[in-house]
Every structure is written in C-alpha cells, then in structure tokens.
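User: Structure with fe (ii) ion, tokens only please.
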Amino acid sequence: MLTIAHISDLHFGREVPDVIQGLMAALAQVEPDLVIISGDLTQRAKVEEFEAAKVFLQQLPYPYFIIPGNHDISATDMVERFFRPWEKWQQFVTPNLEPVLQTNQYIVVGINTARAAGWYFDWSRGQISPAQIQFVADTIKPNSENKLRLVVAHHPFWLPENAEYRDVVENRDQAIETFDQAGVDIILSGHIHMAYTQILQGIIISHAGTTFSNRLLESHPNSFNIITGDRKQLTISFMEWQNHSFQLKQSKNFVRISNNWQQV
Ligand SMILES: [Fe+2]
Ligand SMILES: [Fe+2]
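Assistant:
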C-alpha cells in the first residue's frame, strides 16, 4: 500500500526546531514511500534560509518531491524578483521547478503557481497558465493506467469558509475541467496554513497547514497529512502538533466510484 506524507509551508527562517524533531519522529512511524512538499520552503528567499532548507532536505531519509511557493522568490530585491526569481531555488533546491515523478503505483506532476507579479493587487496570489494545465493533462493521460494521479501546486484550488478572504489560484475553473478529463485523483496544496480536504468535480483537494514554522493562524496548529491507499480508495490522516508531538487529529476515507471520488 502506498504511503505519502504531505508537508507544506516549511518557511525556513521561521522554522521551529522542536517541531522538526517531532515531524521526523512521526515520519519514522509511518516510513513514507514519498514526502511531498507543497511550496513556501523559505520565509524570505534568503541565502541562509535556502542553506538551512538544503540541509533539511539532504537529511530527509525518504524520497521527496518539491515545488516552490510565493515565499521562495524575493519580496524585497526587485531586480532578483523580476529578472532571476528562481535562481536561488535552482541553485539550492533543484533545477526543475515542475518535476514529474512516477513509479508503478503513482504519477505526480508538480506545477509552479507562484508568480513575480500579476494583474491583481495581491502578488502572493498564484496562477496556473493554460500551458501548465495542458502539461498536466498531457503528462498524466498517456502514462497513468491505474496509477494514482496526483498534482502538486502551492496555491489553493478551493478555500474553506474561514479563508474566503484569500483567492483561489487564477484559472482554477479551466484547470479543474481539464484535470477532471485527465482523471486527476488528488491535488495537494498549501499556502493558507490550514489543513482541510474538499471534493471538487470528483477530484480530492487536500491541504496541509504549515508543518513546522511559527507562522500560525489562530486555532490552526502545525500540521501535515498522511495519505495511504491506491486509485480505488484513499485515507487522508490529519496530523496535528499537540503537547510536543504530532498526533492524529482525524482520518477521512475516500472511494472512487465511476471516476469520481467520494468521501465515505
Ligand atoms: Fe506559506
Ligand atoms: Fe504561500
């Protein structure tokens, strides 16, 4: 059975060492096949933050899959932001901003939804372009067979009621339509530092909160998710930081019926 740990918004520069230790202890219990990290690896895209993040990634004893978030480009150095926004990411993390990984159990496609600027006031808002949407469909369709089909993108495709002051990723509706046709099973995201799931047009949307940074929203402690199962049934377990360790808060079960996921 496939086991994936979904961690997010690590925000090195604002990381909490005790919670990192707690994460490692919790991961050792489940020994995930893959750790997915859905962006905002750093707080301010500084060299020292990327260096600390690199040490963490190098010491992670599991395969990992990572995409960037809006905090991973500089918000203060405008020359860097507009002319070479991903230079540090590519130097310290990986040259590939949109990785694809597959085994005989799953295929996972990463999309970089962070932008240096946009035609909207909030530059932390993300976008998925028509070319990126097509890239997901083209990559997943020919390769997938019965593999679990995952998309990882930092920005949200759906927001809970208490987060509706944020925006969903730009071009969300087109993306969901195309992903549905391509048989995408689950979209993993972060950005808003809340943990939740929702089903949108038969696709599971699943968010992890900030896993070990102190950039916490009230009543949303540090969190990560454990996803187990296959293309027929999945369980998402919400792990929350409580009393100096990660504890299981809640598990949700999903089944796939006629190409649509349903919570059971
Ligand atoms: Fe974040
Ligand atoms: Fe973010």
